[in-house]
Amino acid sequence: MRLPGAFAYLIQEYRAAARNVTRQYRRSLFGVIAVAFGVVALVLATGFVEWIFWATREGTIQNGLGHVHVVRDGYLEHGQADPFEFLVDDGPAELGRLAAVPGLKVIAPRLAFNGMISHGEHTLSFLGEGVDPEAERVLSRAMIVAEGSVLSGASDEGILLGRGLAENLGVRVGDRVVLLANTAAGGLNAVEAVVAGLFTTVSKAYDDSAARMPLALAQRLLRTEDVHRLILVLDDTARTPAVLESLRAGHSGSGLVFVPWYEMADFYSKLVSLLSRQMGVVQTIIGIIIVLSISNIMMMNVFERTAEIGTCMAIGRTRRQILRQFLFEGLTIGLTGAAMGAILGVVGGFAISWVGIPMPPPPGMSESYRGEILVTVSLLVQALGLALVTTLAASAYPAWKASRLEIVDALRHNR
Question: What per-residue confidence (pLDDT) applies to 94?
Fold first, then answer.
């Protein structure tokens, strides 16, 4: 019975502290505004960074990386030197086992190679990829075919060239080119192909050297029936860790390695690390601003209400009660400011996202984009938590100072 009674007493004390906040409404308003400003700034800044993380992650995945890569053990380390030693069988048996993955949208085979491409008197080196045209419609959604048409499963003669490679080679849609590459047996082979389209991605360096073609054409050029990797595309990026664990457990000893997207997205990992450190600095600055603002307001409250504090102590209020009173007053200011800041931050985030933030192309990329503010529940909880913690920290010293006043000196204050 004592716990409910103690809780009810704390509620009563909090209500009294809230009334004191409204009684000193002008000064309290400045504190509320300071906390609200900090929360709004944190929500908008962190929301923009969260959107950058989301856009970079999903853009990387949808630009052909996928969620999980299935390769032979050693391919990532030694595949550049001898790629044909690490081929993967993409037959019905292996595809059937992988198709049981929960949330799987598509399995996209890839056959990668280097070769030479010729048109007229021009010959250039290129990075080739043999792909399944139907699977690539799901996997490479971020790739834009600027001219011509996408690859078709009905024809294995049409290829796609990066816009930069096509310009350097001097070809247009409909031109015929010759592809030359080393075969799996160590010889040379050449095939003719028709430029079906020109594509662009977010990476200009890739567009300057890449060519894509139907898997059947690439296998005919390299004289092989296998692929270098199988890429799994899931319906939700959040499924990746669970799917990865399931695949590794179910294919133990098979010689296959399952590599998640985040182990291959080096730029994304470095971006997250850099911006996370920067946001840590921003949060520290906002916290310092809130602490200084609330601390100054609470100290002024203690100074102006010294006689009141002395009277309260003279009629029997303990030092702990005085301490809690000022802590509760600071908490009330923090709660009010945090709630107001969260509401304004959410509204501001949606408004900015609706208008859009024009962003220039990042280094090494050719396409501009429009930024947004991604407001999540965890972001709001983080902002509210920071506001409440800093407000309580700022109220601690003024509250302690008020509780340590001597009754006689407090009563004689301003007399």
Answer: 66
